[in-house]
Write a structure and sequence with these properties.
- There is one protein chain.
- By secondary structure, this protein is an alpha+beta fold.
- It has a domain at about 100-330: Glutathione S-transferase Yfyf (Class Pi), Chain A, domain 2, CATH 1.20.1050.
- The protein contains 13 helices and 9 strands.
- A 4-stranded mixed sheet has the order 7-6-8-9, covered by helices on one side. Strands 1-2-5 form a 3-stranded antiparallel sheet, with no helix packed on it. A two-stranded antiparallel ribbon has the order 3-4.
- Strand 1 and strand 2 form a beta hairpin.
- Helix 5 (about 180-205) packs across helix 7.
- It is globular and about 80 Å long.
- It comes from Oryzias latipes (Japanese rice fish).
- InterPro entries: FAX/IsoI-like, FAXC_N, Glutathione-S-Trfase_C_sf, Glutathione_S-Trfase, Metaxin_GST, Mito_Protein_Transport_Metaxin, Thioredoxin-like_fold, Thioredoxin-like_sf.
- This is Failed axon connections homolog, metaxin like GST domain containing a.
């Protein structure tokens, strides 16, 4: 219970009647001790003398408070204005259209720093479904990204989204898989999403936070401050969730050991095959590609990059094969394909294509790419890329 009390000497204050205190009234402009059946929890700072005189110059403290409060109010107003402007701009109609809600494009050239956002967008391209990106920052009710809207219906979670699209639109990359292959695909998916993901998140958002911070795309006069806040906030979330998961209770060296074991397992399962389940794409390829993408393109000089571009080169070839086929606008310097201690990466930003369909992609871009061969004599990046269109077209039948 609170009570607003009037004091003869200095004005009013707010007292919590749940506690009894004896307060030296020097703060109130007197040398006496005043007993209170309560505890002072608020006292005005606008009076001369009292607290302000005890702390120093009244005018100096006034100016400091005014400037600090004004700066905070200005920052809050700016952020609110930007948020409302973005949401108004990004309001999209989902009637007969897939609206993909995900994080903004980073400045490093990769489509996303989130493996799950990259997984779903890559999957939409694999099944050749047009979609519209929305970078309005709205999270799902579970507090996660990505999620979609289709015919004004919202669907959350990449696994449930893929099942929904299969049921509603009749597209699936797994129709040709045997029950054993489907079981293997699920086991690989769970290893990546429930285990390997946390090791790569640790490398991205904890061990390489400074480099990751430079990749975040934040505009406006307070962009540097906001970038710092966002990156450190996300780093704290990752560490807290890793601890809750259990993997965050290990040392950094142990986390990297677990990461390496997962990557070696993937390399062994892939072998010299074109895709994880053989010569044709399946849904698990979108998952594997998106979780290996950070090691390939957003963690320069890191241990996973050294591993994937060195000893586990078949995984790098696999990632590049999928990138070239489904992300023709995502340009990568071929000189950076193998690991080197000195990295020289461009800061080209991936354009937002908006409504996208893979069949609208220019094949001229792909045909101009230098042809590279692996030791078996086959194309490193898909010599039969053009002939694979029949594989996607079959999904629409």
């Amino acid at each position: 219970m609170y009570w607003r009390a009037g004091l003869a000497l200095t004005g009013s204050c707010v007292i919590d009647l749940g506690q009894t205190q004896i307060v030296p009234s020097g703060f109130l402009g007197s040398d006496d001790q005043l007993p209170f059946s309560g505890c002072i929890i608020a006292y005005p700072l606008h009076h001369h003398g009292g607290i302000m005189s005890a702390l120093g110059s009244d005018s100096w403290w006034r100016k400091t408070l005014y400037l600090t409060g004004g700066a905070l109010l200005a920052a809050a107003a700016y952020l609110l204005h930007e948020l409302l402007a973005i949401r108004k701009e990004e309001e999209l109609d989902s009637k007969d259209a897939i609206i993909l809600h995900q994080f903004s494009r980073p400045k490093c050239g990769a489509p996303s720093l989130s493996p799950f956002c990259l997984k779903l967008e890559t999957y939409l391209r694999m099944v050749d479904l047009p979609y519209k990106n929305s970078f309005d920052g709205r999270l799902s009710p579970q507090g996660k990204m990505p999620w979609i809207e289709y015919n004004h219906q919202q669907v959350f979670g990449t696994e449930f989204i893929i099942d929904f699209l299969d049921e509603r639109l009749g597209v699936s990359l797994n129709k040709g898989l045997t029950p054993q292959e489907k079981a293997m695909s699920r086991a690989i998916t769970k290893m990546l999403e429930e285990h390997f993901y946390w090791t790569i998140a640790y490398c991205q958002w904890v061990d390489n936070l400074e480099e990751t911070q430079k990749m975040l795309s934040v505009s406006g006069p307070l962009s540097d401050l906001l970038t710092w806040i966002l990156s450190h906030l996300n780093s704290g979330i990752v560490k807290r969730e890793m601890y809750g998961h259990g993997i965050g209770r290990f040392s950094a060296e142990e986390v990297y050991t677990l990461m390496e074991k997962d990557m070696r397992t993937l390399a062994t399962l892939l072998g010299d095959k074109k895709y994880l389940m053989g010569s044709k794409l399946s849904t698990v390829d979108a998952t594997v590609f998106s979780h290996l993408a950070p090691a390939m393109w957003t963690l320069p000089g890191s241990r996973p990059e050294q591993l994937i571009k060195g000893e586990l080169i078949n995984l790098a070839m696999y990632c590049e094969r999928i990138r070239r086929r489904f992300w023709p606008e995502w340009f990568v310097d071929l000189e950076d394909f193998s690991y080197d201690d000195v990295t020289d990466r461009s800061d080209s930003k991936l354009p937002d294509l908006g409504l996208y369909s893979r069949t609208d992609s220019s094949r001229d871009t792909l045909s101009r790419t230098p042809h590279t061969s692996d030791p078996t004599g086959h194309s490193l990046y898909d010599s039969d890329m053009d002939t694979e269109c029949s594989e996607i077209d079959a999904l629409k039948c």
